[in-house]
Amino acid sequence: MIVPFHVSEMLRRVRQRIAGTGALPDMAPRPEGSRSLRMSPRVTADTVARLHRDLGLDAESADRLFDSRAQADLSHYAANIENMIGTVSLPVGVIGPLRINGVNAVGDYPVPMATSEAALVASYGRGARAANKAGGIGTAVLYEGVLRSPAFVFETLLEAGQFVDWVVTEADLLKARAEGTTRHGKLVSLEPVIDNNVVFLLCRYTTGDAAGQNMVTIATEALCRHVAAHCPIQPRNWYVEGNFSGDKKASSLGMITGRGRKVSASVVLPEAVVETTLGTTMEAMLDYGRVANLGALLSGQFGAQAHFANGLAAVYIATGQDAACVAESAVGYTRMERRDTGLFCSVTMPSILVGTVGGGTGLPAQAACLDLMGLRGAGHGEALAEVVAATCLCGEISIVAAMASGTFASAHEKLARLR
Question: Which residues form the catalytic set?
Answer without folding.
Answer: 117, 322, 412
